[in-house]
Write a structure and sequence with these properties.
Largest sheet: none
Order of helices and strands: HHHH
Helix content: over 70%
Number of helices: 4
Shape: globular
Number of strands: 0
Structural class: mainly alpha
Strand content: under 5%
Amino acid sequence: MIGLTTEESIIKEEMIQKLLNDPDKFERMFAAQYLFKYSYQESKSILKDALKDKDPEVVVCITRLFECKEESF
C-alpha cells in the first residue's frame, strides 16, 4: 500500500477508536476484523493491546485473527 488517502486514514482512526472504546463487543470485533484486513501492519501493536479486552469473546476473536494471519504467510 503506497499510502492512505485522507478518507482511508479517517476510517482507520475511527476503527481504532471503536476497537478501544466502543461499549458493544460486536462493534469491537468488527473493528478488529477491519483493521486486520485493511491496515494490519499499521495497526498490529494496537491489535495486540486489544488482547487485554474485558470481554473474552473479543479476545478469542482477535486471537483467531492473529492465528489466521500467521497461517497465511
